[in-house]
Amino acid sequence: MPGLTPVQVLDMLLDPDSQLQAVRDIKNAIIGNRKKKTAFNSAGAVPRLVEILRAAKGELLGDGDDQR
């Protein structure tokens, strides 16, 4: 994520073609860095990541309606 701001990476999350790379960039940026964790959280990363993970879980389960 060299040179990209949290907001720019979050914009990448909106594009299905760049979501996986954006998730990797976020993971790599926040590991061991409290300031970057705070920056991504403040930029709204958590709700968007949860949404992506829920969608991926639904795709893996085949229906997206799992109530667990």
Structural notes for this entry:
This protein is mostly helical. It has one domain (about 5-60). It has four helices and no strands. The protein has helices at about 5-15, 20-30, 35-40, 45-60. Helix 1 (about 5-15) runs antiparallel to helix 2. The protein is globular, with a radius of gyration of 13 Å. The model has no long low-confidence stretch (mean pLDDT about 85).
Average pLDDT, all residues? 84
Q: Please report the distance between the alpha carbons of the first and last residues.
A: 34 Å
Rg (C-alpha, Å):
13 Å
Shape: globular
Number of strands: 0
Total of helices: 4
Tally of distinct domains: 1
The helix-strand sequence is HHHH
- Which percent band covers the strand fraction? under 5%
Topology:
Blueprint: H1 6-13, H2 19-30, H3 34-42, H4 45-61
Helix pairs in contact: 1-2
Give a quick set of tags describing it.
single chain; 4 helices; mainly alpha; globular; 68 residues
